[in-house]
Amino acid sequence: MVLAGALFLDGLDVSMVGVALPSMGADLGMDQSQLQWIVSGYVLGYGGFLLLGGRASDLFGRRTVFLAALAVFGVASVVSALVEVDSAIVALRFIKGVAAAFTVPAGLSIITTTFAEGPARNKALSIYTVCGASGFSLGLVFGGLLTEVGWQATLLFPGPVAVLLLLAGIKVIPSVARPAVNWGHLDVGGALTSTGALLIVVYAVVRAPDVGWAAPSTIGLFVASAALLIAFLTIEARHRNPLLRLGILRSLTLVHANVSAAVMFGSYVSFQFLVTLYLQDSLGWSPIAMSLGFLPAGLLVVASAFGMDRVLDRVGTPILIAIGLTAFVGGYLLFLRAQPGMGYANFLLPTILLLGLGFALCFPAVNSQATAGVSDAEQGLASGLVNTSIQIGGAIMIAVVTAITASSGGTQVPGQMIGGMPTAITVISVLSMLGVAGSLLVIARRRRPEVLALTGT
Predict the structure, then answer these.
(1) Which of 2, 126, 206, 267 is the most buried (most CB within 10 A)?
(2) Where is the chain membrane-spanning (predicted)?
């Protein structure tokens, strides 16, 4: 309950603040490009330090790392609700993301080293990951309710909950022996270069519509990001205790799980970002009305918790990922039909139901596949890697759709989609289609040995 509660809180935090973005923008005078940093600041801190968090949990003790990071998360939540300077809020969101980067891999590796691989672990992972997906889905409802009180409430709420989880965790998470290590075992250089590469590429994409994609400053930022990425790979190849042991990427199923995770979350979180602004700023929906509109997706994800472990046991994870991503594609394409005056049951409900189905299938499947067959010593690495992929996908895709809408140059017309929104959703749909195609290739490759064995060749 403590571990699943922490993951629920992490998912809740991202989507809850997303609902409050229009209100925050109105009060703080932030435009769309600035607002995306409220979300991107969190996911960049999250994605940039997940590998370090996973490695730290393996080296310094999963219980210690989990509890310490949970405390930082709670404090940063409370402080962020007390300031009204946009740059300070973004900085605190980044700190919260870094804290989550340590709680998530530590929590997941506690589960995977406690339950044996097979039905027991599948059941534990299905409950755990569905709680994370439920937090993200139901965060919209919490966000709508709290935004009616004030957008500061969405920033404050996770703080007291984190404190309660911390107190419970101190009591129920057992202490275990850990190897004698020191800070020299941590690959800080790898963490800084990977995070720096992500920050720069997101900044470049968001800034490009204003200064030009071919501007020397834009090209220079992309070159700097590539240089940091090369530096990261060089460090990982030479470091005695790398954040990312490059040999782990030889596993096709692991790579497929990570790419699918990035596609799944990147497409969904950027779609939600656009739809939140469209429903509230263009259609005039209240925060609570918008959050209730998304509620069916959350209910589907919650309901899936009662049988997802059995599905994981019986159906291959690549098949579940392919079906889930297909549901996402259907949801995005259906939304493109939206016209002024269309009722909720016509233009939004079908999309929401398909997105809920996609999350219910994809989220547990990618987490299960990403950690299957990995030794206990590298469970922190594997869990950190898949969550890194999730957050990187989110950060990059939000930056891309923001750049697309900013480049459109259109004015906001009540009832109409935000300028560039149809193009952005089409890009999101194409990305998800590529994810489906990749999953089908993996399924075909895994079935090929079976066919050869049956034919005797």
Answers:
(1) 267
(2) 35-53, 65-83, 89-113, 125-145, 151-173, 185-206, 212-235, 247-268, 288-308, 315-335, 347-368, 380-404, 424-444
**Are 335 and 372 within 8 A, CB to CB?**
no
pLDDT score for 273: 85
Instruction: List pLDDT tens digits, range 347-363.
Output: 889 999 999 899 888 88
On whether the CB atoms of residues 407 and 209 are closer than 8 A, the answer is yes
**Structure confidence at residue 454 as a pLDDT band (50, 70, 90):** very low
**Where does the pLDDT of residue 440 fall: very low under 50, low under 70, confident under 90, or very high at 90 and above?**
very high
Whether 59 and 137 have beta carbons less than 8 Å apart is answered as no
For the stretch 220-258, pLDDT in tens is: 999 999 999 999 889 888 887 787 778 888 888 889 999
Taking the C-alpha atoms of residue 287 and residue 189, their distance in angstroms, rounded to an integer, is 42
- Give 120's contacts (C-beta < 8 A, 6+ positions apart): none
Q: Residues 321, 362: contact at Cβ < 8 Å?
A: yes
Residues 6 or more apart whose CB falls under 8 angstroms from that of 233 comprise: 246
* Per-residue tokens: 72: 């930082």
DSSP secondary structure string, 250-300?
A: G-HHHHHHHHHHHHHHHHHHHHHHHHHHIIIIIS---HHHHHHHHHHHHHH
Six-digit token pair at 279? 């429903």
- Region 196-222: mean pLDDT is 82
